[in-house]
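stage 2 :: seqdesign
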C-alpha cells in the first residue's frame, strides 16, 4: 500500500491542522475587514470631537454651536468642544476644516454666506464649497427684518417705502459687509421698487446697530440675534419680517408683503454642520441622526427661538442640494448687480 508523501521529521496530521488554523485566521481577517466601516460608525466618536466656528464668540450661531456641543457630548459620552475662528471671511476656519482628518472628529459650523456667497464675491477663494467639504446637517434658518430706529421718522413700512421711492439715492441702508445676505436683500428691494439707496457697510454688528439707533443711518435689514441688546432695550423696532409668513415666535410682526412691500423679496440665511471631504457615509449619518435628535428637543427649540432662529433638520443630501441651488442663485444675483467684495 502506497504511503502518503512526508518530509523528514514532519507529521502530516499536525501540518494539516496548521493549514486549517491559518485558513480560519485569513477568513476571520477578511470578515473583520469587511465590517470595518460598520465598526467605525458604531464606535463614533472614538475620542473628543472638536467643532470649529466661523463666527465670533458670543454671536448667535456661536452660542447655538455651544448648545449643540453640550447636548452632543451627552449623547456621545465624549467631550465636544467649540473653538471660534472668525476673520478673513471665514477662510481661516474653512481652511482648518478642509485640512482636518476625514473621520468626523473635526466639524465646522458654517453659514450660507461662506458656502454660497463667497465663491461669487471674491476673486481668490481658497476652497471649493462642494468639492472640499462633506455636508452633514442643517442647524437652523434665520429670517431677516426691516429695522429702524425707535426714535426715527419711519413708523411703518409704508413710511419707509414711500421715502425710498420719493428720494432715490438719498436713503441710507446699513449692512454687515458687502455681499452679505442683508446687502443682497437691499439690492433685491431696490430692483423690485425701481429705486436706489446709499449702501453703508460696517465691520461690526455693534457699530451697525448703534448707528441705526442713533439715526446715523436710515434703516437696515437685520436679525433678532444680530440686533441683540439694541432690540431688547427698545432702541430699535422691527417693522416687518422679510419672509413668506410670520414667525411663530414673533406673531405680532407682519411680513413685508402684508405691509405693502413686494412679495417677491425674501431675505434669509442658514447655518449648518459640515466636515472635511470624504467622511465615511456611516459616520455622516451617525452625526446627522444625533443633530436631528437634538433639534427635536422642545427645550432646545425654545432656546433657539429666543435668538429668532428656526430649527431646521435636514438629511446630508438635502443640505448638499441646498448648497448647490443657493450657489447658482446667488451667483446670478451677484452677477446682475455687479457686486464685488474685493
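stage 2 :: out
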Amino acid at each position: 500500500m502506497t504511503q502518503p508523501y512526508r518530509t523528514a521529521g514532519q507529521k502530516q496530521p499536525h501540518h494539516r491542522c496548521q493549514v486549517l488554523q491559518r485558513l480560519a485566521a485569513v477568513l476571520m481577517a477578511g470578515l473583520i475587514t469587511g465590517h470595518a466601516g460598520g465598526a467605525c460608525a458604531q464606535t463614533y466618536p472614538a475620542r473628543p470631537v472638536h467643532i470649529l466656528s466661523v463666527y465670533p464668540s458670543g454671536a448667535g450661531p456661536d452660542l447655538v454651536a455651544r448648545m449643540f456641543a453640550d447636548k452632543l457630548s451627552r449623547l456621545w459620552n465624549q467631550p465636544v468642544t467649540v473653538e471660534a475662528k472668525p476673520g478673513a471671511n471665514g477662510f481661516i476656519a474653512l481652511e482648518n476644516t478642509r485640512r482636518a482628518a476625514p473621520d468626523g472628529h473635526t466639524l465646522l459650523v458654517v453659514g450660507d454666506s461662506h458656502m454660497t456667497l463667497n465663491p461669487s464675491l471674491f476673486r481668490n477663494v481658497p476652497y471649493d464649497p462642494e468639492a472640499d467639504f462633506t455636508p452633514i446637517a442643517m442647524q437652523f434658518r434665520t429670517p431677516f427684518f426691516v429695522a429702524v430706529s425707535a426714535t426715527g421718522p419711519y413708523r411703518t413700512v409704508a413710511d419707509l417705502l414711500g421715502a425710498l421711492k420719493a428720494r432715490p439715492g438719498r436713503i441710507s441702508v446699513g449692512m454687515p459687509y458687502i455681499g452679505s445676505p442683508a446687502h443682497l436683500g437691499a439690492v433685491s428691494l431696490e430692483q423690485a421698487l425701481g429705486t436706489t439707496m446709499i449702501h453703508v457697510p460696517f465691520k461690526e454688528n455693534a457699530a451697525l446697530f448703534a448707528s441705526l439707533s442713533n439715526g446715523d443711518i436710515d434703516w437696515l435689514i437685520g436679525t433678532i440675534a444680530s440686533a441683540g441688546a439694541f432690540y431688547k432695550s427698545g432702541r430699535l423696532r422691527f417693522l416687518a419680517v422679510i419672509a413668506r409668513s410670520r414667525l411663530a415666535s414673533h406673531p405680532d410682526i407682519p411680513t413685508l408683503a402684508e405691509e405693502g412691500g413686494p412679495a417677491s423679496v425674501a431675505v434669509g440665511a442658514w447655518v449648518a454642520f459640515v466636515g472635511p471631504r470624504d467622511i465615511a457615509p456611516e459616520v455622516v449619518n451617525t452625526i446627522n441622526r444625533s443633530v436631528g435628535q437634538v433639534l427635536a428637543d422642545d427645550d432646545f427649540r425654545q432656546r433657539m427661538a429666543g435668538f429668532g432662529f428656526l430649527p431646521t433638520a435636514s438629511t446630508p443630501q438635502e443640505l448638499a442640494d441646498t448648497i448647490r441651488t443657493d450657489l447658482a442663485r446667488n451667483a446670478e444675483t451677484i452677477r446682475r448687480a455687479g457686486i464685488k467684495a474685493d
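stage 3 :: structure notes
- Confidence is low (pLDDT under 50) at residues 1-21, 23-40.
- The first strand starts at residue 49 and ends at 53.
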